[in-house]
Target: Acyl-CoA dehydrogenase
Amino acid sequence: MQFKLSEEHEMMRKMVREFALKEVEPTAAERDEEERFDRSIFDKLGELGIAGIPWEEEVGGVGSDFLSYVIAVEELSRVCGSTGVTLSAHLSLASWPIWKFGNKEQKEKFLRPLAEGKKLGAYGLTESGSGSDAAGMKTTAVRDGDDYILNGSKIFITNAGDAEIYVVFAVTDPALKHKGVTAFIVEKGTPGFSFGKKEKKLGIRSSPTLEILFDQCRIPASQRLGEEGQGFKIAMMTLDGGRNGIAAQAVGIAQGALDAALAYAKERNQFGKSIAKQQAIQFKLADMATQIEAARLLTYQAAWLESEQLPYAKASAMAKLYAGDIAMQVTTEAVQIFGGYGYTREYPVERMMRDAKITQIYEGTNEIQRVVIANYLVKE
Ligand code: CAA
Model:
């Protein structure tokens, strides 16, 4: 067993850490306050090769692996949870299914610009009436000659509005339930495809979340991803890896909160000594660090399994479940360590606490992660 990161992975961490401190952290509070997405940050990630870390060079990637990818999401999220999810939704949710199920033409036309960071990706599964019960979707796709016509809507779509390429799921045969779901690639600007309400959120406020709408939206059959009826499996398999991206986001947010709380505890004096030397605070810091380390190990393990092409769905669900839960605990404790100051927007920990909450909800609530894990336990 090898618990030390390779030189390549250490270099990835160093590069993304430096980028995050220079280009992401300085505006994180302001972007949160203004609920503003900054496309130039994603563009720069593209220039560094971060938008296509695990994909082969032939399709525009840099030929690294899923461990490098989660390290990148972690380091971005350490300073800004919104930037972390921008990359995670782009890479795990939009690019991955095209990489896995796309044909040669689809990879050239859609995956390459995503991998090079020239286009931003999004994933449309959730609907107003189907969240956890993803198979209950109502958006339809009806075959019409060489096209499909899409009607319906999706909600809570990360990167929507700004993204150019969307992987969306629609029902092609309602009688077949989940076996009647099909995946499509839809481009921004397609007639009949538009954007609805932009959500005002508790956290990850500089990551855009919008409703997307299909009204007689005509998509060429060449943009069907996989076979008719394969969509639900594609959606689920995509989430298997996506969940580990969210685990990495949660680890990063928690680490950012610990970094801030530790620095503050060392400087803050009460009762004649720094609070970092007082047991009540030491116990908190020790628990926070231990929880983060455990979550990180689960996350890296799941990423390693995926890179090695070994089964990773259960590991990924465990990583997301644990990392999401501890991110909420750690960030709440960080606010507690800062006391009254932590409750103000002067310090980043209140933003981190707000950002952490979503990691227990999206890409399958943590209750759904327990269902997924238990299903594997029973099957195994
Ligand atoms: N891989 C491959 N196939 C899978 C699979 C997986 N991980 N999970 C399920 N399937 C297959 C099953 O094998 C089964 O196939 P057969 O019919 O051929 O036997 C089929 O799919 C149906 O499986 P289930 O009966 O288990 O399906 P279900 O309807 O009971 O749902 C669920 C299972 C786990 C609850 C699923 O609906 C789920 O994951 N729900 C949560 C949805 C979710 O995570 N949404 C996130 C939205 S995206 C997001 O949040 C992004 C963002 O903002 C950043």
Notes: The chain has a mean pLDDT of 98. The pocket of acetoacetyl-coenzyme A is lined by residues 85, 89, 93, 125-126, 132-135, 156, 158, 178, 232-233, 236-237, 239-240, 313, 362-364, 368, 371-372 (CB under 6 Å).
